[in-house]
Amino acid sequence: MKIEKRLMKELIREWQTTELPEVLPRTIHIPLSVNKIIAIVGPRRSGKTFLLFWLAKELLSKGVAREKIVYVNFEDPRLLPFEAKSFEVILDSYRELYPELYPELDTAKAYLFLDEIQVVKNWEIGVRRLYDTGKFLIFITGSSSRLLGYEIATQLRGRALTFELFPFSFREILQAKEIEVNELALYSGTRFSILKAFEEYLNYGGFPEVVLTESAELKLRILKSYVETMFLKDLVERYEIRNQAVMRELVKYLATNVSSLFSVSAFFRWIKQAYPITKRTVINYLDYLEDSRLFFLLKRFSFSLKEQALSPRKCYIVDLGLREVFGHRHSQDAGKSLENLVFLGLMQQKAINPLLDVFFWRDSNKKEVDFVVTERGRVMELIQVCAELSGPGVKEREVKPLIAASQKLKCDNLSVVTMDYEDEEVIEKKKIKLVPAWKWLLRDVLRVS
After folding, report:
1. Which domains does the chain have, with CATH numbers?
2. Residues 339-361: pLDDT tens digits?
3. 3-state secondary structure the chain
């Protein structure tokens, strides 16, 4: 469909004349003046649009005129279907709207926010055209990491920087709830507010809309709508999935078995008893779930890249609230949810520091450490997660693999993240920090190492 300039002008002015909503700041830092295309990737409803609005407010506070900020949402029904050649209409519309401003853009560029860009086929060609005019600083968002990654690596290589956005971190949740976090707060009534917020985070996750909703029933209704209308609908439509029943079973299986090893072969042997499907289809479906950032499959740490590639991976979900409504939870698996929460904390840290990477470790004797954190390929930290340490032999069972990995990987920065236990012990000449998860998630604020 050809997009008329009249419609594009209306959309540009409609946004420019509408008051921006109240927006909560995020901890991720997005540069405003780098001459690169800034790509923000994240799952649906994680706050990408509101992050753009926050950036717009920052620009306005710095004196940038509203007329020099353009926002286009490619999921606006009035623009569907948008084609790559229609990007020229954005350029022409802006030039005709502001003929007096346009010549100035060679030295003082306008800002162009393009939201949910992945719905436009061959979008990278059009964005490259806008970028090459030299008149815009361009920010794009998308909920498909693979599509954005591939297209940026080919058409836009050297011209783009990618940032990953997740649902609210625990720190952002406390900011949203206006709960002050500092050292003194730990010794006041604020501590109980922090612990209550942590319990909600563990149960309902960090999607902004869910966090800001008080009613537990409404939280669950919102989460169910996310699963049904956003993730599954997006997956089915975007990837033209024929066997929707298998995709649902796969999502349910992964959501139920977070923080566990996932075997494609084992799942395939189980699912083929009920549905006529090939193993390749299962692998493709798994790729789609990773691409949409709904699930993550964590690699096993090894100095051998081949071994890394061939080893089974551990599965984590992007938000525990989705597990609440789509998986089957058991009373005894609080440790699995806690481990998933720590994984998300590490991924949010990685989003801020791209030099970090995260793995799990397992030796030939099946001793396992939940997380190996590396920076520039060097092992920096080993983390074990255990909700409850008080049972007979539990502490020994959790600590032994940590010490074995410490010796093997030559790393002495060792932690056990717990539900509420805190201590520091020396075992086999290794200092081990035992930290409550809520405090570990706030380690940057509370100076927990």
Report:
1. 5-165 (3.40.50.300), 173-446 (no CATH)
2. 999 999 999 999 999 899 999 99
3. CCCCHHHHHHHHHHHHCCCCCCCCCCCCCCCCCCCCEEEEECCCCCCHHHHHHHHHHHHHHCCCCHHHEEEEECCCHHHCCCEHHHHHHHHHHHHHHCCCCHHHHHCCCEEEEEECHHHCECHHHHHHHHHHCCCEEEEEEECCHHHHHHHHHHCCCCCEEEEECCCCCHHHHHHHCCCCCCCHHHHCCHHHHHHHHHHHHHHHCCCHHHHCCCCHHHHHHHHHHHHHHHHHHHHHHHHCCCCHHHHHHHHHHHHHCCCEEECHHHHHHHHCCCCCCCHHHHHHHHHHHHHCCCEEEECECCCCHHHHHHCCEEEEECCHHHHHHHCCCCHHHHHHHHHHHHHHHHHHHHHHCCCEEEEEEECCCCCEEEEEEEECCEEEEEEEECCCCCCCCHHHHHHHHHHHHHHHHCCCCEEEEECCCCEEEEECCEEEEEEEHHHHHCHHHHCCC
